[in-house]
Amino acid sequence: xxxxxxxxxxxxFFLGFSHFPKVEVTIFALCLLMxxxxxxxxxxxxxxxxxxxxxxxxxxxxxxxxxxxxxxxxSSALTPMLVNFVSGxxxxxxxxxxxxxxxxxxxxxxxCVLLSMMAYDRYVAICNPLRYSIIMKRRVCLQIVAGSxxxxxxxxxxxxxxxxxxxxxxxxTINHFTCEILxxxxxxCADTSTVQLIMLVISVLLLPxxxxxxxxxxxxxxxxxxRISSGGGQSKAFSTCAAHLTVVxxxxxxxxxxxxxxxxxxxxxTDKFMALVYAGLAPMLNPIxxxxxxxxxxxxxxKLLIRNSFSAFSISILK
Length: 319
Known about the structure:
Blueprint: H1 2-6, E1 11-14, H2 24-51, H3 58-87, E2 91-93, H4 94-127, H5 132-135, H6 138-164, E3 173-174, H7 181-185, H8 193-206, H9 208-226, H10 231-259, H11 268-292, H12 295-318
Parallel strand pairs: 1-3
Antiparallel strand pairs: 1-2
């Protein structure tokens, strides 16, 4: 039955940013730059959290997983667009479109859950510092990360399977630069209200609900910090949370504007640019935000660079 629904459309065409031919090359260059920076910065962050024993803590364990998510999410969203621009085809196969849609949804959903768990980690660290090592032990951290991945992948599956059951028998041009689920639904030849209802329920569970947990965590953190008598202690507590809060605002702000906006407020071109921020800019900025005011990360990066420089120097001498 599923195969019969899809036999009439085997290839999709991306409209992309063809409405803006004068800036297409500029958009391509910016996307390529964002993608390369995202890859390099997140790989570097993952490397130092693994190689530096001082960063073997729950916070950096979660941060390494966040970087891994960002690499996968950006790759699934931007890589096909960059390849199509270079090749000039702007096409994608049915299986490729389904895979891209699923992985984008899975990575985004997983990040929603993981960010809320990172807020809980900060809550325990600041409000229950003496019990932190007991509460956030390695087994618990592994369970949190595994639970985030399972939740995100199942949520994406629940959204993708109903889309596969829709008939696509006419227009095969996607008014987007990626196989974004809302753009795909516009091509269906049947009523999509059931799919949209499923998406709404999942969006409410994965956006406002985790945001509520984040707000409660930071409300408790603020209450605890204000009871600290020393200004230095307050400053240190706030600095540990500032990076995470910035990432949360950037991620959830773009996600809410894309998936929970009123149906009356609809602009496909605006959605494309918001998707670029969501898929390219946010993953690129995450490791930069976490590194700017984090002395531990800066020291770890310096150690890694010095170690590599010394190794290269030693090899050159031995030659």
